[in-house]
Structure prediction request, 188 residues.
Amino acid sequence: VRGLASAKYALTVAAAGGHGLLFIGPPGAGKSMLASRLVSLLSPPTLEERIEITRVLSAAGRWPGGLARERPYRAPHHTISYAGLVGGGANAMAGEITLAHRGVLFLDELPEFRREVLEALRQPLESGSVLISRAARQIEMPARFQLVAAMNPCPCGYLGHPRIPCPCPPSFVQRYRRRISGPLLDRI
Prediction:
């Protein structure tokens, strides 16, 4: 990665401390590219973590054929459903947060995700697990992941851009940014 010194520093600090990260910038600034590099900055998984990752993949029908060697990197599309992100459904399948266990979950275009989907991240970010309740049973799934998200500074993406003017009225910018709740931002 060339340039972007402060963003690379933030990525390094996040990797070292296990912190969440939110990149805000215009389209083409390198937010997604930087986010995809985080997993390579993390320490290799320990044997115990490799076993945990393998168990999750195996339970989800994605067994790698031996112990997993790398931390997972998951980047679901912003149209993902609640059950797709958190898990659930009729057969209580693992969601993206469980598939990202011991790795990185990247949410690009963060304000475009449905509010209830984003709010469902709050408890797993705190506890490292998610509890799926169904009529007949409850299933606790692991969900200790590092959250990295990216978003534009406004709906058009060009607020503060040095060459491209932003046509977004301040009320649109505020509404766009309010799609991300304070409690979720606190966890990032």
About this structure: The beta strands are 21-24, 73-74, 87-88, 93-94, 104-108, 129-133, 138-142, 146-151. The longest strand covers residues 146-151. Residues 5-17 form the longest helix (13 residues).
